[in-house]
User: Which sequence fits this backbone?
């Protein structure tokens, strides 16, 4: 039977792995945070395994701090049936917006999954839409103790900047490159925008797109950890083991 009418699936992804991991020191003095192990494998490998199971084939990894440690650990991705490519940001890291913009040269025009390399979750990436309705689709989670006020509101599957009840952005989403169109007008004269390559945060672009009603979202009520401190890493490791 022909599959010509089968829905498109995810084929490419981006992992944010360029951060300095300052709150994780001394662990990150010699190991970038996404390569720290939990449950017997590096945090980033949990993502790679999920991508492979989903049918993703091309994965771009943003790297800056200890960038030379990634390839010896992960290889070219072939052990997972993936093709890994590195988006070298230099120093300092380019922030999420600048990092995504810099990585677009290694992605094609299709929507892409993007995930923070320093989180762990039992969220099933198969629930992500292959094509976001607008510019982005974000996965939100219940507010952890370290982010009690949340980030964004979810109202009838639309993500808003503000609302009566806010949730925390999980660091998991699907994006179109169109989100970055006109980024300079939105970001303005923020520090780093005149650097080459430019350095800026993604949040202002997301908020602008939210105002236009072009960001959808979902609430994941399962397990999720932002591995931001050695204590949280130890707790996650113990839970996974």
Assistant:
């Amino acid at each position: 039977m022909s599959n010509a009418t089968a829905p498109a699936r995810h084929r490419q992804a981006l992992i944010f792995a360029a951060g300095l991991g300052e709150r994780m020191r001394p662990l990150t003095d010699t190991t970038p945070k996404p390569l720290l192990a939990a449950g017997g494998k590096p945090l980033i490998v949990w993502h790679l395994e999920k991508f492979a199971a989903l049918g993703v084939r091309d994965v771009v990894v943003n790297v800056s701090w200890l960038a030379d440690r990634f390839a010896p650990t992960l290889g070219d991705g072939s052990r997972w049936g993936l093709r890994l490519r590195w988006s070298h940001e230099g120093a300092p890291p380019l922030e999420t917006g600048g990092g995504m913009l810099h990585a677009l040269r290694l992605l094609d025009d299709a929507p892409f999954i993007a995930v923070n390399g320093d989180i762990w979750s039992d969220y099933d990436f198969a629930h992500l839409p292959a094509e976001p309705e607008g510019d982005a689709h974000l996965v939100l989670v219940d507010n952890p103790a370290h982010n009690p006020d949340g980030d964004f509101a979810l109202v009838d599957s639309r993500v808003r900047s503000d609302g009566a009840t806010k949730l925390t952005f999980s660091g998991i989403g699907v994006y179109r490159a169109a989100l970055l169109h006109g980024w300079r007008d939105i970001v303005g004269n923020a520090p780093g925008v005149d650097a080459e390559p430019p350095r800026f945060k993604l949040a202002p672009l997301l908020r602008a797109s939210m105002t236009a009603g072009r960001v959808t979202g979902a609430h994941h009520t399962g397990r999720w950890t932002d591995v931001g401190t050695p204590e949280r890493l130890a707790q996650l490791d113990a839970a996974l083991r």
Summary: The first strand starts at residue 12 and ends at 16. Confidence is low (pLDDT under 50) at residues 1-8. Helices lie at 43-54, 70-74, 95-103, 183-187, 203-211, 230-240.
